[in-house]
Amino acid sequence: MKIAYIAYEDSNDISAWSGTIAHISKNLSKNNEIIPIDNLGCTWDIIFKIIPKVKSLFGFTSDFRRNKFFMKSIARRIEKRLADKKFDIIFAPGTLYVSYLKTEKPIVVWADATFASLVDSYPQYSKMTNKEIEIGNSLEKLALKNIQKIIFSTTWAAKSAISHYNIPESKIVVIPFGSNLNENFTLDDLLELNKLKQVNKIKLLFVGVDWYKKGGDLLLEIYKELRLLSEDYELDVVGSSPEKIPQLDGVRFHGFLSKSDPDQNQTLISLFQESHYFILPTRAEAFGIVFCEANSYGLPAFGSDLGGITDIIQNGVNGELLDINKSPKELALKIHESVLSGNYNEKSINAYRHYKDNFTWENAISKVNNLLRDLI
């Protein structure tokens, strides 16, 4: 198949959308010809990007993409780029950018959320103006109606499309994303790695680029309670940090580590390999690829019982879901009890196998390819 692949960014940029855009393109290209329709930005976009900065002065947040004029401009850019191309199908990672797209070819998107689900879940969307939310919903509805087949990475997002936008269930397929970090790590590698892990420590790993949204403040309160239960706990924090970094025994802040930088990416991989458990008490999450990445290195994961995380974590299988409305003391006790229960190596193997069975790009892309072939 010849697939016209739509992306506002560079479709090979592994730093865009946590690497998802690049990984989808890379894996689709193994059995198809990819025609990149990417790098869609232009100098005029600065006009739209200024709007959020102006609104922030009045206490509002804004998304420059949720703008009818901008979306119409993007549609025209895409149509112009497609005009001299021969392709069978249009594919986009996300519903953005296809609201006004006119084409005779089928459009398929692979998204982790709807706009309505983001408004309901993410703190920053609560500060958008009512008018902007109204426009965002209208653009989302246009996009969903313009698409022939909608792939969502979670049932949480699929349910939102049905309930908020009255999209027929027959138009929707749920296919989870894969891990953006690990492709060649085997079970034998895991068994050898676990032999090298410190037995007198319980090393926790947090990876999140938005400190408050990802629950970083809650994480530190949980950690303090865990240290009261055992001094064996240690914590590595990647991606973000509080404005004033606290001095806590056993806590190391690594800052943001870019997957596009070989040295920083290797540091990130090393942290996954050296840790025992992954923890992310996030306040909002559409999918949570980082949980898949953690499982891919055999780390059982502790994650919030919300959004798309409920599709990834199964209690007692590859981790535990946390009710972040409970106190840090209660959450720490649940985590501690889980850590003490059972054999670590067995839990680690279960997490890895859950990843291999459900969250590899190989499995996901195979399903997507079948869907695309059926459409054309």
Structural summary, described in words:
The chain has helices spanning 20-28, 45-56, 68-82, 115-121, 130-146, 155-165, 187-196, 216-229, 262-274, 289-296, 309-312, 328-340, 344-358, 361-375; strands spanning 2-6, 33-37, 89-92, 107-111, 149-152, 172-174, 202-207, 233-238, 251-255, 277-280, 301-304, 319-322. With 376 residues, it is α/β, with parallel strands linked by helices. The protein folds into two domains: 2-178 and 360-375, 3-Layer(aba) Sandwich (Rossmann fold); 187-358, 3-Layer(aba) Sandwich (Rossmann fold), CATH 3.40.50.2000. Helix 1 (20-28) links the parallel strand 1 and strand 2. The mean pLDDT is 93.
Features:
Rossmann fold, alpha/beta, 376 residues, six-stranded parallel β-sheet
Any chance you could write out the topology, listing elements then pairs?
Layout: E1 2-6, H1 20-28, E2 33-37, H2 45-56, H3 68-82, E3 89-92, E4 107-111, H4 115-121, H5 130-146, E5 149-152, H6 155-165, E6 172-174, H7 187-196, E7 202-207, H8 216-229, E8 233-238, E9 251-255, H9 262-274, E10 277-280, H10 289-296, E11 301-304, H11 309-312, E12 319-322, H12 328-340, H13 344-358, H14 361-375
Parallel strand pairs: 1-2, 1-3, 3-4, 4-5, 5-6, 7-8, 7-10, 8-9, 10-11, 11-12
Helix pairs in contact: 1-14, 7-13, 8-12, 10-13
Give the gist of this structure.
The protein is α/β, with parallel strands linked by helices and 376 residues long.
Order of helices and strands: EHEHHEEHHEHEHEHEEHEHEHEHHH
CATH architecture of the largest domain: 3-Layer(aba) Sandwich
Under CATH, the topology of the largest domain can be stated as: Rossmann fold
Strand order of the largest sheet: 2-1-3-4-5-6
Shape summary: globular
Q: Please, how many helices?
A: 14
Total domain count: 2
| Helix fraction by DSSP (H/I, runs of at least 4) | 40-55%
Low-confidence stretches: none
**Care to count the β-strands?**
12
Fourth-tier CATH superfamily name of the largest domain: Glycogen Phosphorylase B
Described by its quaternary structure, the protein is single chain
- At the first level of CATH, the class of the largest domain is Alpha Beta
Q: pLDDT average, as an integer? A: 93
| Most strands sheet | 6 strands, parallel
Q: Which structural class do you get from the secondary structure elements?
A: alpha/beta
Radius of gyration: 21 Å
Strand content: 5-15%
